[in-house]
Each structure stands twice: as C-alpha cells, then as structure tokens.
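Progress report, Aim 2. The chain analyzed during this reporting quarter is listed below.
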Amino acid sequence: MTKSVRSFVTLTVVALCLIAGFLAIEFRATHLKFRRHGAATIIRRPGSFVRAVRKENAGIGNIAPLATVSVSSVGQFGGAVAQGVADGVADSRDWVTEGETAGAWIRLDWGAPATIFGVDLYDLPSPTENVLSGTLTFDDGSVIPVQSLPPSGAPFRIGFPPKTVHSLVFRIDQVQGINAGLAEIMVFGTLN
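Predicted structure tokens for the chain:
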C-alpha cells in the first residue's frame, strides 16, 4: 500500500468510528430486556427520550411511560413485546406471563413522587385469556379491589381520590385461561 492509500484508509476508519460512537450515544437503547431483580423481571426502564415534566409545567396525563416496569414473569417469546405494556398505546405489545395465572403481577416505579388519581387496565384481547379480578396496591399502603376486566381489550378505569406514591402493583387474583397478562396499563396524574 502506498502512503496516500494508508492515510486514506486510516482517516476513513477514524471517521467511521467517530460516526458509530455518535450514533451509539444518540440512539442508545432505551429499554432493558429481561434483567432479573429478585423474583421480578424488569421489562422496561424509562428511556432518555422521555422527559419527566414538573407539575407546574405540565398538565395531567398518562405517566406510566415514565415508570420502570417489572413483572412476575414474561412469556418465552413475549419479552420484546412486553416492553410496550406501559408505553401509552393499547396495541399488540402486551404482557403475557409464562404460564402464571392467579398471583401474577406488574409493578410500576417512579423515581420521583407521583400524584395519581386513576388507572386504566386493558385486558388481553383474547376470548380465552381474561382477568376476572385483581388488586391495585400502592406504596402508601392503600389497596383497591378490581373487578373483571372487559374481555374485548377495552379500558377499565379505576378512579380514586388523588394520592402521592412512588409505585403501584396490579396483582391478578383470578383469571380465565392459562396465561395471565395485560394489553396495557395507563396511570393518570403528574410527577412532582
């Protein structure tokens, strides 16, 4: 190789490394997949694309996408899909357990106090896999029983007086079928 060809190749390699480094920083992964944390599986952490907005600057909205989401288990083929269970869009990116029925749970944790007043739960849109009852538990010690979710995948709204919490857990107490889960969970309020 001549000196000019070596210089060109060296400059090209350096430029490609710089571009790759920039792209890695700009488009870094926003989700953690299948990280075991005790008995839970963390399926998603909030990414850098989501900016926590202070109460005085924001209206009330769905703050579930700002939470770290953990579940009791996730089906063998549903991991990447399950990340969408709290993304704010009721679609096919749902959470399905790995053979769990009663006792399956999903937990949302916020890094800052959240003042919330409502939760929407969307059952799996399946005629054979349905949540028949459950329990919402908040880290302030309060508990709300949840009745059967609409099997069509329509939202089931649970309203309550505003409460300030850091986390909530929805536990499935009774289910029809062999795999419990949710199509979406939305939590309405603000981050403080």
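Residues 114 and 191 are 4 Å apart (CA to CA). The chain is about 15% helix and 40% strand. These observations will guide the mutagenesis work planned for the next reporting period.
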